[in-house]
Amino acid sequence: MAKTREIRRRIKSVSNTMKITRTMEMVATVKAKQCQGRLKGALPYSQAISGIVKRVVAETGQARHPLFRTSEKPAKSLVLAISSNRGFCGGFNTNVIQAARSEVSRLKESGSAVEIDVSGKKAAAFFRYIGWNPARTFTAFDDKVAYDAVEKVADDYISRFTSGTLDEVRIASYRYLSSSRQEISVTRLLPFEPAAAGAAASGGRGVFYSFDPPPGTILREIVPFAVKIVLYTLFLEAATSEQIARRLAMKLATDNATEMVKELKSRYNRARQDQITMELSDIMGGTAAVEG
């Protein structure tokens, strides 16, 4: 009797857990769709802004903007790790942390002094645990990423880069490729790379453009804005990837809980049958003793 009672308790406990994971899966699914909508709205804008910069540089050859400055051996680098504030998202945070640690180690080996910034409580807690004290920790970025908040971060990076106190800024984060594919990556934010995907510009040879205002003025105004949009898009991609990872993790947890309940119910039925058999045997034995 005690055995069947214990199995019933376990069935109830696992069933309650399954309800929680299923609910979390549904919430993550809704949030993932919302994040995908925001990302799809921002991507064309980001690509258009970067395209303008690439076109101006390709057509005029003027690439003297301060944010294009490169250093063969950067003396001071900054790595921003974009993790999450909450867990239950599989290997999302672990992969971000690992990518950031690898990038920091690589930069230090090259002789650069490295500063680390962290977005998300999970990575911040880990780095503090291992003795890496992040220079700044951002916890306001969740599934709803506000452009104004990202702009303040980008403005600080741009200011420090143009003043020479930073030689490069790299972002360790998840990149959204499709609803079924997200990859961890380290993206160089600064110095900005206007010709990183200049194939579209090269295809326009023989076509001449007249710029008004002059190209230098265009670059001076639009390049900082392009950097901000790139950083904003990276935060959106990370938020979308986080929700997809959480949805998958909760689905797997729900599936595992379902299989466990089935197994426990099967064990309960076997234990109940054994108990009934023993009770029948006792009754039959008692009846035989009385008749004898």
Please, could you describe this protein's structure?
It contains six helices and five strands, in the order αβαβαβαββαα. It has 292 residues and is an alpha/beta fold. The chain folds into two domains: 2-24 and 249-285, ATP synthase, gamma subunit, helix hairpin domain (Helix Hairpins, Orthogonal Bundle), CATH 1.10.287; 26-246, Pyruvate Kinase, Chain: A, domain 1. It has a five-stranded mixed sheet with strand order 3-2-1-4-5. The longest helix is centred in the C-terminal third of the chain and has 77 residues, at 215-291. The chain starts with a helix and ends with a helix.
Question: Summarize this, please?
Answer:
The chain has two domains: 2-24 and 249-285, Helix Hairpins; 26-246, ATP synthase, F1 complex, gamma subunit (Pyruvate Kinase, Chain: A, domain 1, 3-Layer(aba) Sandwich). It is built from six helices and five strands, in the order H-E-H-E-H-E-H-E-E-H-H.
CATH superfamily of the largest domain: ATP synthase, F1 complex, gamma subunit
CATH topology (level 3) name of the largest domain: Pyruvate Kinase, Chain: A, domain 1
Percent of sequence in beta strands: 5-15%
The total domain count is 2
Q: Which regions are unreliable across 5 or more consecutive residues at pLDDT < 50? A: 196-206
